[in-house]
Write a structure and sequence with these properties.
Blueprint: H1 2-18, E1 38-43, E2 51-54, E3 59-66, E4 77-84, E5 89-90, E6 97-98, E7 106-110, E8 116-125, E9 132-144, E10 156-159, E11 182-190, E12 196-203, E13 214-217, E14 222-225, H2 227-230, E15 236-243, E16 248-253, E17 258-269, E18 277-288, H3 303-309, E19 311-321, E20 366-377, E21 384-385, E22 412-418, E23 421-427, E24 438-440, E25 454-456, H4 458-461, E26 467-473, E27 479-483, E28 489-495, E29 498-501, E30 508-511, E31 515-521, H5 540-546, E32 548-557
Parallel strand pairs: 3-8
Antiparallel strand pairs: 1-4, 2-3, 4-6, 5-7, 7-8, 9-10, 9-11, 9-19, 11-12, 12-15, 13-14, 15-16, 16-17, 17-18, 18-19, 20-21, 20-22, 20-32, 22-23, 23-26, 24-25, 26-27, 27-28, 28-31, 29-30, 31-32
Length: 558
């Protein structure tokens, strides 16, 4: 019975389709196509896709960019690909040669119905602007563990490597050895995909020296080879390929190792460094680097970790020149790899650290009292005093009376130290109390309607342990590691008296004579009760809760 039903259905379907006369393409018989478009066009040594524009029923334009210098005969240029409307024909097909030397070359497309459209072929000569001679004039390295580093001494670093002379060779093969080098870039061809290829010669300059890519941390007895990070352009001969889809250039050494860069100019703002930036005088080849970003407390904040382990970018500064001096066309080498003494590693970025610190760490020992408490955050250009923001803390009555935060200002700190180790005793003052470290928006409903927001910020402002704790201080970095009675660890930075300015942001910290400062990196609020809103951007709420950077406790010696 089922077989009979199926037979009836099939018979009905055959009857239905047999009633509609059709041609070979499933269209009614006698149907004629009128489409006459040039869909795509590709010539030999063409860069990118053709830009095809239909102007009206009879005319159109196809714009192509050709590397004319690489075409042997412009009167007979190979057509690599040509696609037209279905059923149409054209005056040329794939594999034909076309004369592009004439004044107005055209391709005529004729529809199946016999209607035509003529496309003018407009050729723009292409020249590889990467080709030429370059003088190497400098470099900038970016490295370190992640996070928003707003004030110089943190976990991210950026700068010219030669400024950190303690990290590199002092025998003429440090980073500055590259700065009399020259690059000779020649374009030799165009690939089918439109990418350009060529050769590169990296000359060592008059002295024939290249950076040997060796980094030192002498106080830890470490010598490390960082060629994998910073040998971005091979010494001597190499090849290159420029991909115009993402505008990158890939260098390939004779042994097959590859590095990829992009060309930069103007000002570069580096992410994750609190808007640190640098200016490029002419051009720079920027190479992303895959460093090791494993957190390592042993080398936290040091230049060795930033640039020898957790490398992120190298920018090679270059300037195009008409000609390479004959005396500079020396391939050269990296010299003999040895272990000279590069000097003492100060550990942190130049311009930061402990300022006018005592000559001996033992001079830090003694009794101190809180003199000032400062916060930096919210994208502001300077520090704010905690007690000068009474409307931000619990215990607020008006702008003229002390709040709970003022309880911290009479606290005392006793320091003992032996070598690099010591003890701290952070005690309450005459009132016997510590600050409760709580933010409270006391301006709600007046002129600052952000809502009833109260947040316990002790995880930031209460980092210095109450009572007794122990510490170890690195005399080269002035980074202090503090452990409380429960063995909880926090890290801080010690500054002596003087003015300390971050060269990247121009933010300054003034530590008065007879005082020391202890700075802590802050963590943004990560709870779920409140969420950041754009309208908070200029507020104290943003500075204290959502985007804080540093908290500095300044102590005056008694």
């Amino acid at each position: 019975m089922k077989r009979n039903i199926l037979t009836v259905i099939l018979a009905g379907a055959a009857l239905l389709f047999s009633c509609t006369p059709e041609g070979a393409n499933g269209l009614p018989s006698g149907f004629v196509f009128q489409e006459r478009s040039l869909v795509s066009l590709k010539f030999e040594h063409q860069i990118g896709d053709a830009i095809i524009t239909t102007i009206d029923d009879t005319t159109g334009i196809a714009e192509v960019k050709l590397a004319i210098n690489h075409i042997d005969n412009l009167a007979a240029v190979d057509i690599s690909s040509l696609v037209i409307s279905y059923g149409a024909s054209a005056t040329f097909k794939m594999g034909d040669k076309m004369d592009l030397s004439i004044a107005n070359p055209t391709i005529k497309v004729t529809s199946q119905s016999g209607i035509t459209r003529t496309y003018d072929i407009q050729v723009t000569p292409f020249a590889e602007d990467f080709e030429g001679n370059y003088a190497v004039t400098g470099s900038v390295l970016v490295g370190g563990l992640g996070g928003d580093d707003g004030w110089g001494w943190g976990t991210m670093g950026m700068g010219a490597p030669e400024e950190r002379s303690w990290c590199w060779d002092t025998n003429g093969y440090g980073p500055a050895a590259n700065y009399d080098n020259y690059l000779e870039i020649v374009c030799t061809g165009i690939n089918d995909d439109g990418s350009t290829v060529g050769t590169c010669v990296n000359y060592g300059g008059v002295d024939g020296k290249h950076w040997n890519c060796i980094i030192y941390k002498t106080d830890a007895g470490i010598v490390a080879d960082v060629h994998k990070y910073y040998r971005v352009i091979p010494i001597g001969n190499s090849t290159w390929r420029r991909d115009y889809t993402d505008n990158t250039i890939t260098f390939t050494s004779e042994d097959g190792k590859q590095t990829t860069c992009s060309i930069f100019n103007g000002t570069v703002v580096v992410s994750a460094t609190h808007n640190k930036s640098f200016d490029i005088p002419n051009q720079a080849f920027g190479f992303p680097i895959a460093g090791d970003y494993t957190w390592d407390n042993d080398f936290l904040y040091t230049d060795y970790q930033k640039f020898g382990v957790a490398a992120r970018y190298m920018f090679l500064m270059v300037s195009k020149v008409d000609e390479i001096p004959a005396a500079s066309k020396v391939i050269g080498d990296e010299g003999e790899i040895n272990i000279p003494d590069p000097g003492t590693d100060p550990g942190t970025d130049p311009g930061t650290g402990s300022g006018d610190e005592p000559a001996d760490l033992s001079a830090f020992a003694g009794d101190y009292k809180v003199k000032s408490l400062k916060i930096l955050g919210g994208g502001r250009s300077g520090f704010d005093e905690i007690k000068d923001k009474p409307w931000d803390w619990t215990g607020y009555t008006d702008n003229y009376h002390a709040t709970n935060a003022n309880k911290e200002y009479d606290n005392t700190l006793a320091i003992t130290i032996s070598g690099n180790d010591g003890t701290l005793n952070y005690a309450p003052g005459a009132d016997g109390e510590y600050w409760d470290y709580t933010y409270k928006n006391n301006m709600n409903g007046t002129n600052n309607d952000y809502g009833d927001i109260t947040v316990d910020m002790s995880f930031n402002f209460g980092q210095l342990p109450h009572g007794e704790s122990t510490f170890t201080i690195d005399a080269t970095t002035m980074v202090v590691t503090i452990k409380d009675s429960e063995n909880k660890t926090v890290y801080g930075q010690v500054y002596g008296s003087g003015k300390h300015t971050d060269p990247a942001t121009s933010v300054s910290l003034d530590v008065p004579t007879g005082c020391i400062a202890l700075a802590f990196q802050l963590t943004p609020y990560s709870g779920t009760e409140y969420a950041y809103e754009d309208r908070f951007s200029a507020s104290d709420l943003n500075m204290i809760v959502f985007h804080p950077n540093y908290y500095v406790m300044i102590f005056e010696k008694q």
